[in-house]
Amino acid sequence: MAIKGKKIWLDGGMYDWDKVFIHPVNQSLHYGLGAFEGLRFYLHHEMVAPVIFRLRDHTERLFNAVKVLGLEIPYSRDEVSRAIIETVKANKCPEGYIRPLVFLGGATRNFGDLVLVENSEMGFAKVSQVHLMIAVWPWGTYLGSEALEKGIRLATVAVPRPHLSHAKICGNYPATLMTKQLAMKNGYDEGLQLCDGLVAEASAANIFIVKNKRLITPPLSLSILPGITRDTIMTLVIDLWVHAIGVVEERSFGISELYAADECFLCGTAVEITPVREVDNRTIGLGKAGLTTKKLQEIYFKIVHGESRQYAGWLTEVR
Ligand code: PMP
């Protein structure tokens, strides 16, 4: 589908959105052997150019995921970061989402203004060429602005956690999509996965609860993705004492503790900070966004739009 003016970066070249092709005989497509990232860029409150949130950390996580797969990105961290900035610039979009993807394939061939990644050799022992593609698209609030304000309804679903879930690997994501689909089929906004009966994470977001003025989130040892938004929240709470809370307890908890929480919220690049007002038909707290959640949201949105000098280092200008 042609999207006018949209560009995709592939292996060092910038191409029109509808001129990039990948042969379907491809190891990554068949076996999920790839890794990706998801970043957001926002309008800066006083600059014309947008800013990318925590670019260095997302790039680092991409390199980690590729390492877990036993592969190597054929670019340096600086080159990948620069390519991400160039792609945002080329798309001339003020706010949106960035999707870098590392995948396998045969040689990259140009045919006029078209580019084709040729078939890769199939077979598990064959390692083909490692490719990097970066796409950008406009993306407003993931679950709608009402969700950000009033909170969402969350359902626990019986989808097992993937084994390599510390790394953002393509093969992990059927579990994510199934979680979301099952929850939505049952009339909920989002799904929540458990790990051995303990609360793990939502479909593409980490989870926090507040109980008796304590902020609690599942530990990384529980096979969850080390979310960059999760880390952002932990940093903010320690630095700023948000709503008189100055520490985050990283510990396991079950659904009974979740049902009885005073507040609950999801966090992630896509969902940003989204309050949860109900879990499995149980009202959480007062059934609306809690005060700690709202305060964190307010700080978060100021930071991503460049309204905080203290956290300006998390932003990369797209000049
Ligand atoms: N868990 C999963 C499975 C995810 O895909 C994401 C989105 N990357 C998150 C949590 C949240 O991570 P982040 O805050 O880095 O976007």
TrEMBL record:
Pathway: Amino-acid biosynthesis; L-isoleucine biosynthesis; L-isoleucine from 2-oxobutanoate: step 4/4; Amino-acid biosynthesis; L-leucine biosynthesis; L-leucine from 3-methyl-2-oxobutanoate: step 4/4; Amino-acid biosynthesis; L-valine biosynthesis; L-valine from pyruvate: step 4/4. GO terms for molecular function: L-isoleucine-2-oxoglutarate transaminase activity; L-leucine-2-oxoglutarate transaminase activity; L-valine-2-oxoglutarate transaminase activity. PROSITE patterns: AA_TRANSFER_CLASS_4. It comes from the Bacteria. Its cofactor is pyridoxal 5'-phosphate. Keywords: Amino-acid biosynthesis, Aminotransferase, Branched-chain amino acid biosynthesis, Pyridoxal phosphate, Transferase. GO terms for biological process: isoleucine biosynthetic process; L-leucine biosynthetic process; L-valine biosynthetic process. Its EC number is 2.6.1.42. It catalyses: L-leucine + 2-oxoglutarate = 4-methyl-2-oxopentanoate + L-glutamate; L-isoleucine + 2-oxoglutarate = (S)-3-methyl-2-oxopentanoate + L-glutamate; L-valine + 2-oxoglutarate = 3-methyl-2-oxobutanoate + L-glutamate. InterPro entries: Aminotrans_IV (IPR001544), Aminotrans_IV_CS (IPR018300), Aminotransferase-like (IPR036038), B_amino_transI (IPR005785), BCAT-like_C (IPR043132), BCAT-like_N (IPR043131), Class-IV_PLP-Dep_Aminotrnsfr (IPR050571). Acts on leucine, isoleucine and valine. Belongs to the class-IV pyridoxal-phosphate-dependent aminotransferase family. PANTHER family: AMINO-ACID AMINOTRANSFERASE, AMINODEOXYCHORISMATE LYASE. NCBIfam families: ilvE_I, PRK06606.1. This is Branched-chain-amino-acid aminotransferase. The lineage of its organism: Bacteria, Candidatus Portnoyibacteriota.
